[in-house]
Amino acid sequence: MLAAILAIPALMLLAFVVNLSQIQWTQKELQKAADAAALAGASQILVAQPSGNPSQNANSNSGVAGAVGTAQTFCSSNTAGGLALNLLNSDVVVGYVADPTDPSSPLTPWSSGQPYPNAVQVTVRRDNTANTP
Q1: Is 131 left (phi over 0), alpha (psi -120 to 50) or beta?
Q2: How confident is the prediction along the chain (133 residues), in pLDDT tens digits per residue?
Q3: Which residues pair with 80 in a beta bridge?
Q4: Is 81 in contact with 128 (CB distance < 8 Å)?
Q5: CB contact burial 14-36 (16+ within 10 A = b; e otherwise)
Q6: Which residues lie closer than 8 Å to 29 by C-beta, 6 or more apart?
């Protein structure tokens, strides 16, 4: 009789643990997708970087567009929680970090007249905005 009564809370606890582990696994998959997309996008900035003076803006527009497109392509190659991921344009920020050695240095989104971008920030999400909750 006691085992039957205690089985209900034990099953509830088991269900909670399973759900929590699925949430953590999905978060890790989202982080992996964001890292891959940011690295792929950053590689496109290097490809389009003007030779000689990196502060030139000659290829900045193509570098930014290439970085966003490549980040979206690499993100869509990943899944999180069994769902293929879609990366929105607004979730990719290509910009300039004044001190790349300082992790707390802010990313300034690139615009015409700014130094050539040197960083890509990607936010991959599963919410009402993108990729369903």
Answers
A1: left
A2: 899 899 999 999 999 999 999 999 999 999 999 999 999 999 998 876 666 555 555 556 777 888 999 999 999 999 999 999 999 999 999 998 888 888 888 888 888 777 788 899 999 999 988 888 8
A3: 83
A4: no
A5: eeeeeeeeeeeebeebbeebbeb
A6: 78, 79, 80, 81
